[in-house]
Amino acid sequence: MTQQLLPCVEINPTAAPDACVIWLHGLGDSGHGFAPIVPELKLPESLSVKFLFPHAPERPITINNGMRMRAWYDIKSLDFESRADLEGVKASAEQVEQLIEAQIESGIPSERIILAGFSQGGVIALHLAPRFAHKLAGVLALSTYMCEPSLLSNEAKDINRDTPIMMAHGEQDEVVPVFMGNAAFKTLSECGFNATWQTYTMQHNVCMQELNDISAWLQTRLK
């Protein structure tokens, strides 16, 4: 039985949308956190892009003494090999997959859908996109890492191997160290995915130069 779709902050263009960006937030944030960047991207109205910023469910987070907060998965330790709870990642990836399928059913082709994620949201994007059954327009993976990278080579599907994956990371990131993001980039590249890697002089956040680069990348992907 199909579960209820994730609630989202939805930002629509003036004309009927023919493309969609689904943007997943980080730990303890909500869909409202990244919604204000849409005007900052300064996308031309001719693109007619809908933005969806889903809210992750609330769950107890082990490293935060079991405090409940919005999260795509539990973090049981800060150990680099097992930071992301695989079962939680799989469950959230399934929920996001249903959200993408709903956009396809609404008339937006999968090739006009971009999956974006910051930090925890990026983990979900990097887990789902290589395993997704439909062709996507692109993937944005910001200040993030990969859950169980050793599984990718056996589980990856071919359909999105040439789909552009833009990875960006802050050189001074103390939450997700830059080497974790770079390791994910290398895993994708070794598995034949079309990933690019860019670092910025920033911490665990988004900077204006990065937003400008994301805007240019989105316009290239969705033109």
Automatic annotation (TrEMBL):
One Pfam family it belongs to: Abhydrolase_2
Keywords in alphabetical order: Hydrolase
Alphabetized Gene3D superfamilies for the sequence: alpha/beta hydrolase (3.40.50.1820)
Keyword presence, Hydrolase: yes
Superkingdom of origin organism: Bacteria
Protein name, UniProt field: Carboxylesterase
Domain Phospholipase/carboxylesterase/thioesterase: 12-220
Family affiliation: Belongs to the AB hydrolase superfamily. AB hydrolase 2 family.
Organism: Alteromonas gracilis
